[in-house]
Amino acid sequence: MHGSRQTSFIAASLALLVSLGCDSQIDRFETNRVFSLTLARSQSLEMVEAEADVARTLDSLFGTPNAPKWPKALLDKLELESPVDFDNLKRAAGRISSEQDGTHLGLFREHCVVCHGVAGSGAGPASQFQDPYPRDFRHGVFKWKSTKRASKPTREDLEKLLQHGVSGTGMPSFSLLASEDVDALVDYVIYLSIRGEVERRLLVRTVSDLDYGGEVAPGDEHRLTYPASEAVEEVVEAAVKRVVKQWVIAADEVVQPTDQITRLSGDELRESIERGKAWFHGPIANCVGCHGVEGNGRVETLDYDDWTKEYTTRLGLTPTDQDSMQPFRNLGALTPRPIVPRNLQVGVFRSGDDASRLYRLITQGIAGTPMPGVLRVDEENGKGLTETQVWDLVRYLQSFGSESL
Ligand code: HEC
Ligand code: HEC
Asked: In CATH, what number is assigned to the domain containing residue 392?
């Protein structure tokens, strides 16, 4: 972090501490108003009523920042395992304090809110000084994980992430925290992500299924209060089921190479790296198209991540046009920043540089970003790379790290 950024960061942290002194501001989770405006714009609708009713439904399912709830009975009814431990949740939530036995409470507020915000929107007070911005957990999309592109991360992925941080970004390492504290924070991230994704789904469904947003207010049988009419209950249950299930099955979605990488040395290693370099520049993987010759990062690209695209380009708005961004900024959206394909010659990989991580990176790409995955094929067919070719490419990527030593 640069000097001036660091100062502003500290100022933001202090401002946050002062504001946390009076807890009134964080008695409730803020509504996802940027998404609500996105929907209102794309459907030409009013979302005020839907917002209020969705917020009330979320309160009854998930509680508040100081008093979280967990819809265990609903999950039992839906025959779903719980991906979150409620005792951990209570430890990570609420005000910062300690119990007599030394147990820390309020962990999320102590360590994460300054960047990720109370509801996990990624727009905490220090977020504007970060590039990339802190993650908005409410999309349910995560970049650095061992699972398939569209899948949730496993608990282990999140634990490792907190232990190591994300090199080259503002996301710090929390390796000094006790493992129970890290464990509780992992539960809290999953909780915020589930809550935020259910909120998004419910906002969509109010419009698509429940008559909200039209000229006439929805009648009682369509109002999103819970428990409610069967139709409304179904909408809520479907949203919860869809989101929670993805977290429950995450561990089955881990991407495993068929064969492990073989350790090579000398000429064999050099030849494999040379072949990897050829695949990097070749037409199938075409990594060069974004990362430049030998990964030098000197290609002009102007693209945005999915979090930003949702309320900009996908609505036909230009992210750099301040006037069209203003209504979103007023509701808490951060200034859109382009996403830049990495200069690989720096040799810093955010997801780590061990072979299996890089294998997943190449075959899955990076969720939420323009970086695509390369198709893995069993035999050379001009459409994808074989396992051996992927390993060549892995060795080529690893050579960036060692060369810069
Ligand atoms: C100084 C700011 C900062 C703090 C404090 C911070 N983070 Fe982050 N966090 C970030 C940034 C920036 C990213 C985005 C990194 C990227 O896109 O590669 C991020 C990303 C993440 C991700 C998403 C990783 C992925 O795979 O997509 C998780 C989960 C996360 N942080 C959890 C936490 C938790 C839990 C805490 C508190 C224990 C925390 N963060 C504290 C800045 C911060
Ligand atoms: C469409 C553009 C595009 C293409 C094609 C592309 N990338 Fe990327 N790549 C990106 C972007 C954007 C990022 C930065 C993502 C981020 O940090 O969130 C990135 C990041 C990376 C990283 C850093 C990962 C980390 O852990 O920090 C590596 C390594 C990488 N790409 C390798 C490749 C390889 C190898 C290929 C070809 C198989 C490739 N990329 C193709 C856009 C692209």
From this structure: 1.10.760.10
Beta carbons within 10 angstroms of residue 125's beta carbon? 20
- State in Å: Cα 171 to ligand 1 middle: 4
Counting the structural domains of the chain, the total is 2
Query: Which residue, 87, 90, 92, is CA-closest to 68?
Result: 90
276 and 210 within one domain: no
Mean pLDDT of 111-121: 97
Alpha helices (H) in 93-167, listed in sequence order = 107-111, 113-116, 155-164
Give the closest residue (by CA) to ligand 2 atom 42.
371
What is the band of 27 on the pLDDT scale with cuts at 50, 70, 90? confident
- pTM (two decimals): 0.94
Q: Is residue 289 part of a domain?
A: yes
Ligand 2 in contact with 328 (CB < 6 A)? Answer: no
Structure tokens at 165: 């941080």
Which ligand is located closest to the Cα atom of residue 131? Answer: 1
How high is the pLDDT of residue 401? 73
Query: If you measure from the C-alpha of residue 298 to the centroid of ligand 1, how many angstroms do you get, rounded to a whole number?
Result: 27
Mean per-residue pLDDT of the chain = 91
Residue 48 lies in a domain: yes
Cα 295 to middle of ligand 2, angstroms: 9
